[in-house]
Amino acid sequence: MKKIISMILALVVGVILWYLLLKPQDYQVNFKAKAIPGTIFETVKAWNNSFDSVGPIDYISPRHFKQTIYVNDSVHVYEWEINPIHDSLSDVQVNIKDIENSVNNRLSVPFSDTNFEKGSRKRLLDFNGFLTEHIKKFSVSIEGEAEIFSSFCACVTLNTAPENKTQGMMANYNLLDILLMENEVQLNGPPFVEVLDWDLKNNSLSFNFCNPIIRSEKLPDHPDIKYKRIYRKNAIKAVYHGHYITSDRAWYALLDYAQKNNIPVEKKPIEIFYNNPNMGGDGLDWTTEVFMPIKESDE
Fold it and tell me: Is 3.30.1300.10 the CATH number for 140-293?
């Protein structure tokens, strides 16, 4: 009997020590979101910028990342775990820890609805509303396998954060358009973006912003413009309607589609734009074709 009591006491002490010192969170919030993990991840990044004092997102994957929020004199870490349920619904789990007041929170949470709990719930309710409004502003439809076009083109190479892609495009739209027009270079299709490197961990994007053209002897020589050819290549295709700043929502949708269908792809999407963002208007009226290249079999 003494042995059994000792084992029970040891178990109780072990559970208490785990709860107070080893449990990875002080509080956990779970909810369902009508979006895929990549869209939720990008929306958290945008929501993060709405706080007065935050740390950078600690990226692990679009389904697992950490967010640091400074609340008064406290440092709160939100660890996000996102698991897709189907194409438009995900299960979201957020583990929240107050770095400097963790033990006090763990002692208080089981017995009262603390300010820490209330504040955490309110922030995530605010986020859910932020996400709900965001997903009303775009749509993505997957069309399956397709072929990337072939064309000679004039390009400007840009390096930005992904969310600044449109700003970079708009800053160079007139440079390409006017310079080519002044030199009587014939355009051969709508402008497009060719992604060279998409670095989620460092939140950076390298891409070519290009105009398809007819090759001629009148091509202007400019230090910021290079000429190249895009070759036909197999890809999976999506059609995106929405502001170009968030067109990477289609990139994530294509990556999810590729994963579900065991299609090996290169994470270097190509986007073809059918509207001029300098003209403004409702983003839902803008059309972008998005291609995710399929890896060649010998790669």
Answer: no
